[in-house]
Amino acid sequence: MRNTPRDEAKENMTIIIREALERDIDQLIRMRWDFTWENRTETTVRFEDFVQECRAFLIDAVQSDRWKIWVAEAEGKVVSHVYVQLIDKVPRPGRVTHPFGYVTNVYTLPEYRSRGIGGKVMEAVKLRAQASELEFLIVWPAEESIPFYRKTGFRLCTEPMELHLERESNNGGMNG
Asked: Which residue in 2, 21, 48, 125 is deepest, having the highest Cβ count within 10 Å?
């Protein structure tokens, strides 16, 4: 199948990998919404209600030193992102303790997928993690995303365990 001129333009576009800024928040909110509902069709949550909660989170995250949000910008818009939460470890005698990074909310707009953009963002995340002396990065991938993470250097492990706690209200299933 031949590429159209538009496809070729996208193949040759300039990609800027950088940390998210407050000016990106509206795009990040929309991408989080779209990511959540990409494979689901039913919702009782209104977009306007979600925006308020997500905006508060993202303002705190962008200003915080505990979250790093990496984005790929192309054609003047955010087209991919990776969120990393820094998690401190309890000090242990006789050992220098470094935090680790929890990788989450990895997403690329559908029309920009299969161009290596997500891999470039993840490479920037890994380089910054090494420079910041994080001990490791961890991710709980969806089954369909395991090949992506393997390509970027992650490997399956059996150490983490989960305990899901019941909640009185699940806020329409938007926690997570």
From this structure: 125
DSSP code for 168: S
Cα diameter, the chain: 61
Non-local CB neighbours of 169 within 8 Å, separated by 6+ positions:
none
pTM recorded for the entire structure: 0.84
Q: Tell me the per-residue pLDDT of 83-96, one tens digit each, with 9 for 90 and over.
A: 999 999 999 898 88
Phi, then psi, of 122 in degrees rounded to 5: -65, -35
Both tokens of 165, joined, read 């706690």
User: In the block, which residue shows the tokens 């991710």?
Assistant: 139
pLDDT tens digits, one per residue of 154-175: 999 887 787 889 877 655 555 4
Nearest to 77 by CA among 19, 30, 24: 24
